[in-house]
Amino acid sequence: MGKLDKSKKLFEEARKLTPGGVHSSLRSLDPYPIFISKAKGSKIYDVDGNEYTDYHLAFGPVVLGHCHPAVIAAVKEQLNKGVIFGLCNELEIEVAKKINAHVPSAKMIRFCNSGTEATYHAIRVARAYTKRDKIVKFEGAYHGWHDYVSFSTSPSLKEAGPKETPSIVPDTEGLPAQIAKDTIVLPFNDPEALETTMKKHKNEIATLITEPILHGNATCIPPEKGFLELLREITTKYDIILIFDEVVTGFRHSLGGAQKLFNVIPDLTTFGKAMANGFPVAAICGKEEIMKKFKPTGRVDYGGTFNGNPVSMAATLATIKELEKEEVHKKLFRLGETLRNQLNEVVDELGIKAQTVGFGSIFQVLFTDKEIHDYRDALTSNVEQFRRFQKEMMSSGIFILPHANKRCHISASHADREIEQTIETAREILRKM
Ligand SMILES: Cc1ncc(COP(=O)(O)O)c(C=O)c1O
């Protein structure tokens, strides 16, 4: 990596106009954010002319690689026909048909524009359907930034008390006090805590929302054997709506979502991120009797000027068609496995207290030798070491986010050769560390 003079200058300008110079909090980098001028395939380029192999991929959406030709062509074609109508268009039906065909839980589908909107709608409709108020979520699980879910995803959780008495820690100022009273937070992969709590509050709980694989601010933690099945069993027993938030896992791991891979079918599912390879679109899908609670068939409000706009729909359809090619997911899984296995061999060889966790095309390097079952385990990763590793990787032209509890993504545009180079670069950096 060369100089970052232009980024620095732009940051000085940006922060006069925008808090911290960034339009989403986590884009802040130390000492200042880099400004990106273009992206193609597996690479991003900053305004100073530095090239990086991109394992951030915009927090996950870019599953096929930046500017994938088929997606760009579909969008260009649509741009000439109209960007937005605020009325129905045929592409909405085509995309909904695809999702219905691929996703086991997706009897009916509604589009929106972000994962946050999707989880908000899902929780609201679950409350309307069950006529109960409480929701259950897991520690470290990020489901967007709306009030219903903004609890217990920050490291300060550890200071708030032991895991045995999970604490409701607000992630932000500005949350109404009542919301915390209607929120229950549990540790992931803990059947005992789950069973006890669900039994105790069974008549008050509207929904349990979870990612099938915990990411959020907890790196990447797969469910332990039987855990998702137990979630399904208990929620069915107590008439609680099970929401799988597949904003990260959906489309990236399989067109049917993680629910198809694990064969556990929720009542509602939310999608976003990789749906349209980077174009802003999201969806909520689920059982007909719940989805029909939305207006106009029901009484749950659901609006959105940009919902189902034809540009996002064209991008989604083109992305799905690419992902229907079997070799795409095969490649994503193969690259992910190679990277994780080899990075784990490297740390074993060097005798470093570190490990690479992940699933499919997602990975994260944790500087801890603790076995990872839940968010608190992920928090044992040494943040200083991770930051040093990230800075060195970035200086070597490999971009990963500087946040120890986030995750890295691989796209179908990454080449085997780039994965090998990444492992070699990481080996050198870790050796020096
Ligand atoms: C699991 C999960 N759900 C929901 C969201 C919110 O999505 P968005 O940023 O599109 O609002 C995210 C974002 O990172 C996420 O990781």
Describe this structure in words.
The protein is 37% helix and 14% strand. The chain has helices at 5-17, 69-79, 90-102, 115-130, 177-181, 191-200, 227-237, 257-262, 288-291, 310-323, 326-350, 375-378, 383-395, 416-432; strands spanning 36-40, 43-46, 51-54, 108-112, 134-138, 183-186, 205-210, 241-245, 268-271, 282-286, 355-359, 362-366, 398-399, 408-409. With 433 residues, the protein is an alpha/beta fold. It binds pyridoxal-5'-phosphate (PLP). Pyridoxal-5'-phosphate is lined by residues 59, 114-116, 119, 142-144, 211, 215-216, 245, 247-248, 272.
Chain-wise SSE layout:
Layout: H1 5-17, E1 36-40, E2 43-46, E3 51-54, H2 69-79, H3 90-102, E4 108-112, H4 115-130, E5 134-138, H5 177-181, E6 183-186, H6 191-200, E7 205-210, H7 227-237, E8 241-245, H8 257-262, E9 268-271, E10 282-286, H9 288-291, H10 310-323, H11 326-350, E11 355-359, E12 362-366, H12 375-378, H13 383-395, E13 398-399, E14 408-409, H14 416-432
Parallel strand pairs: 3-13, 5-6, 5-7, 7-8, 8-9
Antiparallel strand pairs: 1-2, 2-3, 4-10, 9-10, 11-12, 12-14
The protein binds pyridoxal-5'-phosphate.
The site of pyridoxal-5'-phosphate (PLP) has 15 residues, from helix 4.
